Amino acid sequence: MRLQVTRRGGIAGVALAGCVDILELPASEREAAEAALHALRFGGSAGSPNPDGFQYELVLIDGAGRRAILLNEADLSDALRPLVEMALARSRLG
Question: What is the pTM of this model?
């Protein structure tokens, strides 16, 4: 199970993209990550972004296929934020 994250927007408008394999996480982190991902309504789209705010495209790739959601920065839950930050720590400029 992999999560691909692309962050766009901000003042500079530079896109960052990164990926994390959830199955490689320690058990406690993996359980928290899976719970946060299952709470998402994939297929949804964020409203208009805040000026200079970030938008996050999350793509979950697992046995069920490929599912995506677009979230504004304010819609990123506290439970999901560590996983997104971990993916972006492995990022590349887009």
Answer: 0.87
